[in-house]
């Protein structure tokens, strides 16, 4: 396909869709690749091309100011992709879940407990989201309790599988604390 040659080319009138293969020249450089995105309002074209470092698993993304494009040709067009509808209910549930996690972490930092207890709480919440304070006890999954001084032997609960999981997390936490204090 012949390249369009126009110093003041208007890319908004050039038809290409995300996924189309294009060749373009900007600021004297020729670029060939797949359209990854085009933002009409900011006039930015993003092209995905094979990695300049030569690794087949890597990809280069090139952002080009559309005002700097001198020539462009569409080598292979792809039909416009139909966008799937956004499930706003699902998005709202995700937002609420993330907000609850943040609030829980804030409560952990503001709880009137020893700093070691806070650190353990934050370690557990990285693996298990359902963690709360009950006075100075850490409650995990509403079924496992960790009492001061928050060691493995202080983990109690009804469900053996949950207790074992929490004990592993607590044990690993204290081993990491010990190894960090040895290295510093």
From TrEMBL:
It comes from the Eukaryota. Signal peptide: none annotated. Pfam families: AD (PF09793), LSM12_LSM (PF21166). SMART domains: AD. Residues 84-178 form the AD domain. This is AD domain-containing protein. It comes from Isotomurus palustris.
